[in-house]
Amino acid sequence: MVSSDSSVKKSLIKFFRDTFSDLSACEVVDVKESYRLPSSKVKVNITDHPFQLNLFPDAKTLHLYPERTLDESEESTGPSSFVLFDPDSYYNNRVSGFFRLKDQDEIILGGKDSQQRAFLNISKNTPARKLRIVNDAGELIFKSLVNSPQSCIAPLLKDKKVNQLFNWRQKKLGRIRKIFGGPISLLPPEEALTLIRDVNLILEDEALRPKDTQGRPGGVIHLPDDSTVIMLGDLHAKPDNLLTMLSHNSYLEALEEGTATLLLLGDAVHPEGDVALDEMESSMLMMDLILKLKVRFPRQVFYLRGNHDSFSEEIAKGGIPQGLLWEQELINSRGNEYRDEMARLYNQLPYLVYSKHFVSCHAAAPTTSIELDNLINIMQQPKLINELINNRLQRPNRPAGYTKGDVKRLKKCLGVNQSAPFIVGHTPLSNDDTIWENVDDIKNHHILYSSDTQWVGVMAQIGDKIYPFRYPVEKVSNTINSTSD
Ligand SMILES: [Mn+2]
To answer: For residue 345, what pLDDT is reported?
Structure first.
């Protein structure tokens, strides 16, 4: 019988892996300069330095970095992960992709994989299976699958290169702090009141948002097709999840350059999960951050309404009346006027956003046949509002839930191609992930829930497609606050 002692288990697993895996028994090389990968597999000592990788014949250079956190004092958990990206596109202020190699992950690089071509700009002419890379307990194993011409790796030894990715992320922190106007902490009541008033003025005449028949801002944001979409699901009072996202890729740069749109799918407030459900300060900070972003990027940041964006007594979790507590906290900390402005904000929020590349709302597709006009005039359709922010997928115990047909009909009514994704938040499918794709066997129907404590899920557009990305949540607010103005 196998002992329950976990170290024994681990060494047994290692024994079996080493004995039976075809990854075992390979040469370990300490690469000090450019190295042509042989046809046999080699394990490369890569933990001290990032590497560059050339996939001949097109001489495309990729970078491979051990993944680091911004706060170096944060304890690392387990073997290193690596990130693989194309430095030419990664650092160029447009949203671009990357691959993460966690322990035991493998990737086969080649020219036939559309996602690899989109993320890494690998040429179509590269063989379909050119090079295999495996992360074996924090060490990388390379195996050339095509003998000629062989791929090549070289360590990035110069300090500037070694720290390039870290420094690039670090620099964004200063800019995030500037957007917020100081350390990441609750705004003083007066400043908070001015901020939410400014946002309410913006919402009265919000960009890209057709008015309803009574001249009020309508229920729908219609994005131009050429805007790059970056999306976060429910944040549920996790400011660091939003800040972690802003510190990665070129999301912040693309917002600054006006090429991207950030969509927040509602429910930014009210803690969820294994935390104090009645703690409302982090919700206040969360809204301060979002409202600052809205003021900084009024035409590019859109917050959709979720069911938690409310003072309703029906908003409760685990017996805690979060809607009522939230209202009370706003009155206590910031006064009645602030509470009234928050209520005004809720009444002015949009419910659905789309471009030709996607459709999104907080919770669900409508289960009845509707027209775009109904969505724009949503203030006159309380049942439709309720469906979009509260409903979930159909289940035996939830016959009124939405189905594949409802998703299809919604896209059709908006003139959006059926191959474009429908992305919602609201309904996490487990407590150990942040993105679920093709949910319920409905193709291109994804759930994005960005309030996990370990990983923050982001859906972001590269070219015509929207891809899922996950980032380890870091305490970015602490790191920002520990750097001086
Ligand atoms: Mn919700």
So the answer is: 98
Q: Give the domain extent around 125.
A: 6-162
Whether residues 140 and 212 share a domain: the answer is: no
Given 162, 181, 215, the domain boundary residue is 162
Cα 363 to ligand 1 centroid, rounded to whole Å: 6
Q: What is the CA(234)–ligand 1 centre distance, in A?
A: 7
3-state DSSP: the chain helix, strand, coil percent, rounded to 5?
30, 20, 45
How far does residue 427's CA lie from ligand 1's centre (Å)? 7
The rounded Cα 328 to chain-centroid distance in angstroms is: 31
Residue 105 counted as domain residue: yes
How far does residue 267's CA lie from ligand 1's centre (Å)?
Answer: 6
- The alpha-helical segments, DSSP class H, found in 205-316 are 239-246, 251-256, 281-296
Amino acid at 121: N
Residues lining ligand 1 (ion), CB within 5 A? 267, 306-307, 426
Instruction: Give the chain's residues under pLDDT 70.
Output: 1-25, 46-48, 484-485
338 and 439 co-located in one domain: yes
What's the CA-to-centroid distance between 13 and ligand 1, angstroms?
41
pLDDT, tens digit (0-9, with 9 covering 90-100), for 63-108: 999 999 998 877 777 778 999 999 999 999 999 999 999 999 999 9
| Amino acid 2: pLDDT | 36
* Tokens (6 digits) for 246: 């802003």
